[in-house]
Amino acid sequence: MSTYRLKNLLSPRSVALVGASARPVSVGRAVLENIHKADFKGQVGLVNLRHREIGGVAAVASLDKLGFVPELVVITAPAREVPGIIDQAGRLGSAGALIVSAGLGHGPGSLHEAAIAAAGKYGMRLIGPNCLGIMMPGVSLNASFAAHMPGAGNLALISQSGAIAAGMVDWAAQRGVGFSGIVSIGDQIDVDIADLLDYFALDHKTRAILLYIESIKDARKFMSAARAAARVKPVVVVKSGRMAQGAKAAATHTGALAGADAVYDAAFRRAGVLRVSDLRELFDCAETLGRVESPTGKRLAILTNGGGIGVLAVDRLVELGGIPASISADARKKLDDVLPSTWSGANPVDIVGDADASRYAAALEALLADTGNDAVLVLNVQTAIASAADIAATVTDLVAKYRERHRGWAKPVLAAWVGADQAIIQTLSGAGIPNYPTEDDAVRGFMHLVRHREVVEELSQVPPTMPDTFVPDARAARQIVAAAIADGRKWLEPVEIKHLLEAYDIAMVPTYAAADVEQAAACANEIFAQGGTVVLKIMSRDIVHKSDVGGVVLNLTTPDAVRAAAADILARTRKLRPEARIGGVIVQAMVVKAKARELILGVADDPTFGTVVVFGRGGTAVEIINDKALALPPLDLQLARDLIDRTRVSRLLRAYRDVPAVKQDAVAMVLVKLAQMAADIPEIREFDINPLLADETGVTAVDARVAVGPSQRKLAGSGPANFAVRAYPSQWERRLELKDGWRIFVRPLRPEDEPTIHEFLRHVTPHDLRLRFFAPMKEFTHEFIARLTQLDYARAMAFIALDETTGEMVGVVRLHSDSIYESGEYAILLRSDLKGRGLGWALMQLIINYARSEGLKAISGDVLQENTAMLEMCRQLGFEVKPDPTEPDICDVRLKL
């Protein structure tokens, strides 16, 4: 599993350091001293071939001379020795190694490959190489060469940079912020970001996870782990290289718009990860998320002794999408009673510059009791009249009492003491109050809390149902693309594009291909016969942007005008681009819609995340306007709407003045269809519809470019190889006939099935629920069911069974595999009144077949001893059944595939 043996590495009972140097200034010596300074409670051994003692610590010549088997082996030895050390540790039975050493190289025959091979023989896990190390305050382990050891807390940090990890430790020491763990992952020879996301997502000591990322190797594994983690706790990322230019040589507008960092941004958004722009903002996130829970809304009350700073805070709040809280009538009366008549009378609550500790306390108490706000920000500008330290002490005391009275949930209180000394910071931090140097930082901290709550809600949303009328002709579309590739072409011809769009029910203007002037006139007559006008465009595989060579002529109304324009276009293009292959001209009906909006829609290929969907304002200057948004497919209607809403042009899709609104969801449906097309035909490398005209009647594609080529991408698991997020696996839909002719329809679970799940659970007895969940289940909340239905179809899969006659749900089977697709854990639940009719057997066979198709080596499960029917079925299916060594009431069942 991705978390396999990670607990042994991150919470080991014994540690051995191999390669500590006798030199005072060396990595090995620093790691040795840090291990001892941290006062690790387990066994510690030192291995050094040349020295019997280093820094007062006895050493042995090899690992087998230690007298114990270390769970974790920390390696600071020269790179050439690393594979041998790992092999020796594996033979002894060590769980894993932390490779601090650098210089293992890459590729066939490298020390890197040798280290992986050595670990693989014994199932060892490896962190590093070329890393700062790990710091786990909860077990007093500092196996790093960082200058300081952080205190214990509830933040986890996963960093690709050792320097960033060390900087976070220094900052945390000043602010009193603690960590559940800090892991510098280096070159990620084995344990990677996704593995650690899985580990800390399940770690009850961790409230939030911070990431510093430079690049991602396995996009599908990262997306699966990040989405799972973000559902249960905040995940915050800062990524370097934001200004790096991506897709410079892109041949289409969508390719040019899909720059590398924009794709990372889309990936983080899809995963529910909060992205921040720099370390300062990451520090603010750590300050906030490590101390308080997310508010129920985004209404912020601001208490201040300085009107100017309060107004600045409100400005920033509104700019970031927050809401200045209104003061309720009851709260206003309380404030009038305790404050001087000169107070502001509104939010921000300015209690005047001479406010002392008692005035702060009275006002804060009223705001905490006010149901009109979701959180309170306390600001203080130091004056010579009242002691800022006394005010801080009073505020912390009041907040502590408030939290004691509201143990179930207390609204967040944040603070910013401008120019505060370290003593005030320690007072506020010691009370668990997030505090910041400025009002701007404080408001950003509050909005991080808000954004996390919104992310959780977005991840648990039930998407709208797709129209049943959309059934694409994927087979015809594949044939078009396959024929072009077989012909050695990289671009589809215009008529092929029209047929491709028709296969997915996307309207395009009438389009013809003409090899010469006379054929162009003949095609134009088809359009003139319907009362239309004509546009001519040059047709060349080597000229993607036709307007660059004057290859577009509009508003042609007669056959003679078409002949003249065609001759002119062909002659001009041959003169400007003599090397270009010219196939003739494209003849299209000219669409004139005065109130239509010009949009661009398309898909592009990213080297890390695969297919990306692009939407924005269309036209010839799309790169200059740069009004675009990106999303990772697959898309449903809600995701498509969100993509549209992130652009400025989305506001023009609404009605204004005498311009009617664009037809509802017409544009969103085209985005969904393009995403489906990319899933069905991974050979589409880039797709560019520009412009797509949209108005109250619907949408029409005017021009499009499609680049094709053999698909060379391969991501872990099955599903579209070009998708980092797996699409709905419709190929697993089944119709089965069981005992007594009972016919059922089985399909993968979908997010919109939440109401169906609720109804199904009403037909399951409390006894059967306890057998499934190992505990009495009195209530199933929306959040709980949403987590069950929000599948990534990668590590998590579920099939529901529906009675074909009634349409009612009658059973469900689930499988959750590890991120490296080696094994998975199953669970099954049937309607209690329909057991004994062969449904359980059929669903178990289906999930076993699915696991085999995924390439899993085994599936397993936990079954209560009293669940004799399930245990007997497992035996008949070939599962090995063993008592759980730690839980006497549970049996472990396992099937090798």
TrEMBL record:
Q: Which domain of life is it from?
A: Bacteria
Q: Which InterPro entries match?
A: Acyl-CoA_Synth/Transferase, Acyl_CoA_acyltransferase, ATP_grasp_subdomain_1, CoA-bd, GNAT_dom, Ligase_CoA_dom, NAD(P)-bd_dom_sf, Succ_CoA_lig_flav_dom
Q: Does the keyword Methyltransferase apply?
A: no
- Which UniProt keywords are present, listed alphabetically? ATP-binding, Ligase, Nucleotide-binding, Transferase, Tricarboxylic acid cycle
UniProt key word Isomerase: no
Q: Where is the N-acetyltransferase domain?
A: 744-897
Any one GO BP annotation for this protein:
tricarboxylic acid cycle
Instruction: Show the GO MF annotations.
Output: acetate-CoA ligase (ADP-forming) activity; acyltransferase activity, transferring groups other than amino-acyl groups; ATP binding
UniProt xrefs under PROSITE patterns = GNAT
Q: Which PANTHER family match?
A: 3-HYDROXYPROPIONATE--COA LIGASE [ADP-FORMING], ACETATE--COA LIGASE [ADP-FORMING]
Q: Which family does it belong to?
A: In the N-terminal section; belongs to the acetate CoA ligase alpha subunit family.
**The protein's name:** Acetyltransferase
This chain's source organism reads Bradyrhizobium sacchari
